[in-house]
Write a structure and sequence with these properties.
Elements (H helix, E strand, L loop, with lengths): L1 E6 L10 E4 L12 E7 L2 E11 L12 E5 L2 H13 L4 H8 L2 H4 L8 E7 L11 E6 L2 H11 L7 E2 L6 H8 L5 E5 L12 E6 L7 E2 L5 E2 H12 L1 E7 L22 E4 L3 H11 L5 E5 L9 E3 L10 E5 L4 E2 L2 E2 L1 H17 L2 E6 L5 H6 L2 H16 L5 E8 L11 E7 L2 E9 L6 H10 L4 E5 L4
Parallel strand pairs: 6-13, 7-9, 7-10, 8-9, 10-13, 14-20, 15-16, 15-17, 17-20
Antiparallel strand pairs: 1-2, 1-4, 3-4, 3-5, 11-12, 18-19, 21-23, 21-24, 22-23
Helix pairs in contact: 1-2, 1-6
Amino acid sequence: MFANIEIISNNTYNFSHFTYIIPKKYQGKVQQGTIVEIKFRNKILNGIIVSTSSKTHINKLNNIEKVIHNLDSIQFKYLQYIASVNRINVGMLLYNLFDVGSYGNQKKLRSKSTTNISFEGISEIIYKKKNLFFVPSLKQSKLLYDKLKNVIDIDYFQKFGGKDELTKIIKNKSYSNIILLSTNFEKINIENDVNYIFYDSNSSAYKLPKLNELNIIESAYLKNAVFGGHFLFISEFPNFEYFNQRWIPKEIYDYKIEYFVSNNLKDNIELISYKYPNEKFNYYSNEQLPNIKNFNFINNLDDSKLDTLIIQNPNISNNKILNSFKLIYLLRILNVAKKRNIKIFVFSSNAIDINKTLNSNNMITWINNEIDVRKKYGPNNFYKIYSVYSDELINNIDEKYFLGPKKANNKFIYELQIKLTDKLDYELLQNIYKIIKDCEIKRIRHIS
């Protein structure tokens, strides 16, 4: 018997696995998901078995040295989901995020729930005896501690990125309420009697650039679906790419906004200049204005010099279908402006009222329509879509996940579609990633 093994390493090895002999003493004791010790390029390393076979065409193979741990089928399925979605392999995923020994004890729980709460609704949380908060940055860790310290007793909030102190905290089962960086999420085993609360869950800081922008929030939704547990997400608005449930907004939106309505940008600038003669604006905008006197573009919302927010032609829906990505962006920048008490200007070619739109009953219809369209066509929590751009025609690739091509601007454009089900062909996807590794790949997140 033979095992195809991925190296647990910070390297996908070009999406390759390596074949080893399963010694007789281990036959019947290893399976897909078994962690083993192997000799690899004159080093002793750990690997994970992704498949087994009775035949191989490869000669001069090494034996598996030692069996370390057997992950069960559910544990391995979750790893395949996360690796496949983020175009890495399980070996690289384990190396960067997981404590294998701890993860091997993760069980499927008897109950599960996901709840989305607005920042203003944080006071409505019904806390359990144990509550574990995840934040995207150390700055947010301190901010959340200050927000909660007079509400619940916080046993610990993470101040540094060091591992030693954190290991003690994670292994200490006597805690009640702790705040951790999100990069520790996969080191935690989910339990029934704990709330797992993700603060500012739309923050881009939940993404891990070294792992193809792996988003801890996306992983959390998938982990909840696979293992269960009680997860709460706190943000300005749910991201319906991940959250596929009905949701009714409770907020009353009230932003102080000045509207400038005209057919073109030049006229809008003239209207502002007429109303505010000789005033200078250090502004942030979704689109930088042309180089205009008295308008200084600020590229960072946190910049202390920022005094004006300019929103150009805001649009959060199409054909009565909400675009939650656009709405989240709009609310984030509006909330920054409101918190800092800076001017908000809106340029539009039509008369609009953002507050009226956000507070209207139409929002519920638009929300439900986005959820319905995503459930049917994707992308959603279990259906991921990517555009693949190639300079050349791609041959000999399985059409189970890979569609196309179309041709535009001298590029061959393909679509990679991944449905996360029990029938996911992980090894086939790894082979596809090997073939398209030099292509431009874009994740599709919006609905068309």
